[in-house]
Description:
Layout: H1 2-5, E1 16-19, E2 23-28, H2 45-52, E3 76-82, H3 85-96, E4 101-109, E5 116-119, E6 123-125, E7 133-135, E8 144-150, E9 155-162, H4 169-176, H5 199-212, E10 217-225, E11 232-236, H6 241-248, H7 250-254
Helix pairs in contact: 5-6
Amino acid sequence: ESELNHIEPEDIPLDILYEDDHILAINKPAGLVVHPGVGNKTGTLVNALAFHFENLSDINGNLRQGIVHRLDEYTTGVILVAKHNKAHAHLASQFENRTIQKEYVGVTWGNWKQLEGSISGSIKRKRSDPTTYQVDESGRQALTQYKTMNQGSILSEVNFAPKTGRTHQIRVHSASMNHPIFGDEKYGGGLSKAKGFIPEVTSTLRRLFKGISRHALHAHKISFQHPFTGKNTQIDAPIPDDIKTLIRGFDLIHG
């Protein structure tokens, strides 16, 4: 029993955006899984946190010390961590009541007809593949607001503000509008989408694809009420180089 619940502290470097006695904010890199699960007992953010910090909340048990919310494995950006249970409970209730504001930057395929709007399809786990989610009326209610920042005919830069916190929500919602996230093989945004353009464009898309090697989604900002001071707090994670390079590449494909 204790074996299963023991977290091996691992010296994985962390990019700390903010720290005080109550909370931490980490800029999560692509490829770092947030907590142990089936198939990955080690190498997660939880293992890294256990190495770097003495005190973390354990409301969610040992395997999720400090973890109040999650980001997908290949999504980069800001993630909040609670150092003690009181801070954890306070943040958790803000997530539950949807008073926490999150802003993501994503690059999607296609030209959005409406420059801003909201997507409200309910989300459900796929029966045929439990690691994949889909829009399904019998699923859990979900809401994402979006605003296009940089419209192109082939790729667009979009700001997403999810109002609910469903797994894969932005990726599923964006794909449901026929605008999957660039690089998101799981939801139809993969390399096969680069076909059918003039050869120069296809080869440029392939090159941009190689340069990011993940889905182009980044948790850019989070705003919340500080669990101790009560002050409104905003933490930003700078847009990573791979997404910056991709956005700079728009000129090459849109002429």
